[in-house]
UniProtKB/TrEMBL annotation:
Domain of life: Eukaryota
Protein name from the UniProt record: Fe2OG dioxygenase domain-containing protein
A Pfam cross-reference name: 2OG-FeII_Oxy
Keywords (A to Z) from UniProt: Iron, Metal-binding, Oxidoreductase
Gene Ontology molecular-function annotations: metal ion binding; oxidoreductase activity, acting on paired donors, with incorporation or reduction of molecular oxygen
Amino acid sequence: MAAATQGLVQTSLETNTQVTKRTTVKELVESPALTSISSNYYTINSNEWDASDPDETLPIIDFSLLTSRDPNQRSKVIQDLNKVCQDWGFFMLVNHGVPESLMKAVLDGSKEFFNLPMEEKMEFAEKDLWKPIKFGTGVDIKVENFFFWRDFLKVFVHPQFHFPNKPKGFSEVSGEYCKRTREVARELLQGISEALGLEENYIEKAMDLESGFQLFAANLYPQCPQPELAMGIPAHTDHGLLTLLIENDIGGLQIQHNGKWFNVNPLPNSFLINTGDHLQVLSNGKYKSIRHRAIVNNKATRISLAVVHGPSLDTVVSPAPELVESESSPATYMPMKYKDYLNFQHDGKPCLDHIQLTVT
């Protein structure tokens, strides 16, 4: 780290000792004493954040064509799905049928939750990975003294629906939202099954989606006085099959494409969809789980809501046998139960590395 940066961080530690003892990032930002951030929030790779490519445009998939009764339209969008899952692993989904009012309501509910008094939110503060409702601040469990510039709420919403009982109405609107996103994800996965050359219901049956694990993750990224030093969430891939993400009007998502990072600017009333680790495994590497990250700014608070759709926790995920040929295309991932895979989170190593096979 450069000497100037070291001095800046040290000054932050000296001037904000009292502030940094607060529990969450939201509390930090609301303190009048905060003028800089402590080294606990400093991210080493911040010098790479501006390496975004402004010329890239995220592909768009029209969901209404996938559900069309016109076989030609459906066939065309399945070809498009195949291409974007291979080339990008991220796309914008439009005309998906989820009411814009419902999307806004669940974002508003998330904001209201984060605005609850600290003692009410702390009722849900947990460190256990398997607690169905967990509120916290963005600490990396492997490196206990390093924090991400975010607060979060993570909830298991399927096959059993759990949810905080506050603020009023948040559970009900989120329950409806999660149901609607499951319907969208299931339809997309039927199209992706066909795009892989499999039967339409292959993924649904093989991954036991009727009991599929669905995770609701709301993230709050308050404005940061030194956004060049902090990170909302560092580069990572998502577990599961598909993630559906929405956000308020404040940008911050970056994805990696062809070795470069670029900013994502979603269309209004669209979902940002990304393929997860387990779709990469099931497709035997044909589709990729793409690295993405969240940056912060010093002007406004960003809220994002990611809903992860995965297999049932007891499903053993492996490459589809139809996509594995002993010589020309051997299996590149070892089979593993989804629940066991999730236990690899937060150990500081990409989860896929644990199941990657060396092909000779």
